[in-house]
Write a structure and sequence with these properties.
This protein is an alpha/beta fold. It has 18 helices and 21 strands. Strand 7 and strand 8 form a beta hairpin. The longest helix is centred in the last third of the chain and has 17 residues.
Length: 492
């Protein structure tokens, strides 16, 4: 099975320069850009730098994404003269490594000649400190709104002494308010000497666990601005700074239209997300077991958004879905969130949700169980067999922790194993969810064809494949035309 990564759309904060065939990325970008809870870090930093005289220090180790972030900020400064002074990378290499530069900068400034951006890329790799000093002074004396990026501070100070360092600091930090210039200083490491001089400090870092990269941005200071997310994960996919979208705080009430399904193939069930299908190598093989392994803490809403896309896509193509929900949501709550996506008729005919509360009223979709293992297994098989007569495909979506909570590990294990064997024989989809290390989870994991880990990091939902092995991806939920959608951004 292929483990190739899906084609990841750009972040919602900066529009992609490539067409996405399905249009999902564009719709998600538009939806999330208007979400009042989401902080667009690039535009926040750009707004911060629109105040003349503000200086932002962007620091981090080599390869952490400092240049990518600086260029993204530069691309959003519509009304400012842009000057990128590079002391370590030539303009030719910048354009090669960041092929979107021409289009982004030209679109923002309204210019059509690509040479104009070359004029704003100053190659200072071989310049003496005095020359850099003079160029900064000329820019300040021009008295025009401008953003100057110095990449990097260490390069600007090479071959200079303490007096030269003080001159450089004076050139950058003195009389900025009057000049109309704001500055981004890129530094290869933590430069404690600049901390007291700058108005904002951002640190970029990258870590690696089990062969997967995670990138993090942390805001230490941003004078005069409220920062709701002081830490956030990001990606450098497609040579862009891509902020990973925070998980929504609540389900979007606009998700009222029935979902337009992503078609199954001859051998695979689609998850309803083309990106997730690609991560899994084309979808979920028919008759397969899938384990969603939750690394605590994962908010219930994040899991519900993901599962509802898979459930709705399955039911909308004539399949039946049996759900054993977690203890977080009642059967009624699950029904109310899923029914609008598939339609009332399909929901009543092909969805069954277990419920252990005998006081609730009867409903065609509600499958009442007593919490007595033998009796409940017989009831489950009876309903499963009845629905299977009219549905070409069957899905069991079970919360394994709930199973253990109700029946105990010793009772649940043999019955669940027997059920799984029968489901594989008929090509049904068995989708398990677990967060606790139980015997039932271990048994499921032993037979699982797919093993996905889901976790929350700094407000964003992250997904990676253990079986098959994949890099880390940021999940981005949105609603195109009122329908729930899931896109994945690879963390590279």
């Amino acid at each position: 099975m292929s483990t190739s990564a899906p084609t990841s759309p750009s972040s919602p904060q900066v529009a992609t320069t490539e067409e996405v065939e399905t249009g999902t990325a564009d719709r998600l970008a538009n939806t999330l850009a208007e979400h009042p809870k989401i902080v667009d870090i690039v535009r926040l930093l750009s707004k911060f730098l629109q105040t003349p005289g503000h200086v932002l220090l962007v620091q981090g180790s080599p390869g952490s994404g400092k240049t990518s972030l600086a260029l993204e900020i530069l691309s959003t400064m519509e009304q400012s003269h842009k000057l990128y002074a590079s002391t370590r990378v030539s303009p030719v290499k910048l354009r090669k490594h960041f092929p979107w530069l021409d289009e982004v900068i030209d679109n923002m400034t309204g210019r059509t000649s690509k040479a104009t951006w070359i004029d704003e890329l100053h190659d200072l790799r071989r310049a003496e400190p005095d020359n850099i000093f003079n160029q900064i002074l000329r820019l300040k004396h021009s008295r025009r709104a401008a953003l100057l990026v110095i990449d990097s501070w260490e390069g600007a100070l090479r071959n200079t002494n303490e007096e030269g360092r003080r001159m450089m600091e004076s050139a950058i930090f003195s009389e900025l308010d009057e000049s109309g210039v704001s500055v981004v200083v890129v530094s290869e490491a933590r430069t404690g000497g600049l901390d007291y001089l700058v108005d904002g400090i951002v640190t970029l870092s990258a870590s690696e666990t089990e062969g997967r990269t995670l990138r993090t941005l942390e805001i230490h200071k941003l004078r005069g601005f409220k920062v709701s997310y002081p830490r956030l994960p990001f990606s450098l996919d497609k040579a862009r700074f891509n902020q990973l979208a925070p998980l929504p705080f609540q389900e979007d009430p606009l998700a009222s239209k029935t979902l337009a399904p992503v078609p199954h193939s001859t051998s695979f069930f689609s998850t309803g997300s083309r990106d997730l299908d690609s991560l899994l190598g084309g979808g979920i093989r028919k008759g397969a077991f899938v384990l969603f392994d939750l690394e605590s803490p994962v908010p219930p809403l994040g899991l519900r958004l993901l599962l509802n896309i898979i459930r709705a896509n399955f039911v909308k193509q004539g399949g039946a879905c049996f759900i054993v929900p977690s203890g977080t949501y009642s059967s009624q709550s699950v029904a109310e969130s899923l029914q609008p996506l598939v339609g009332e008729a399909a929901f009543n005919e092909r969805v069954r949700i277990t419920e252990y509360n005998s006081t609730l009223p009867d409903a065609k979709w509600r499958l009442p169980l007593k919490g007595e293992f033998v009796a409940d297994v017989n009831t489950f098989y009876k309903h499963w067999t009845a629905v299977a007569k009219t549905s070409p495909n069957m899905m069991l979506n079970v919360d394994l922790d709930k199973l253990v909570q109700v029946y105990g590990e010793d009772l649940a294990l043999p019955g669940f194993a027997g059920l799984g064997e029968g489901m594989r024989d008929v090509g049904a989809l068995n989708l398990g969810v677990a967060s606790r290390g139980t015997k039932v989870k271990e048994e499921f994991l032993r037979t699982a064809d797919y093993h996905l880990r889901i976790r929350m990091t700094d407000g964003s939902l992250l997904v990676c494949g253990v079986k098959p092995f994949t890099p880390l991806f940021g999940a981005r939920f949105g609603h195109g035309n009122g329908q729930p959608e899931l896109a994945l951004v690879e963390v590279v």
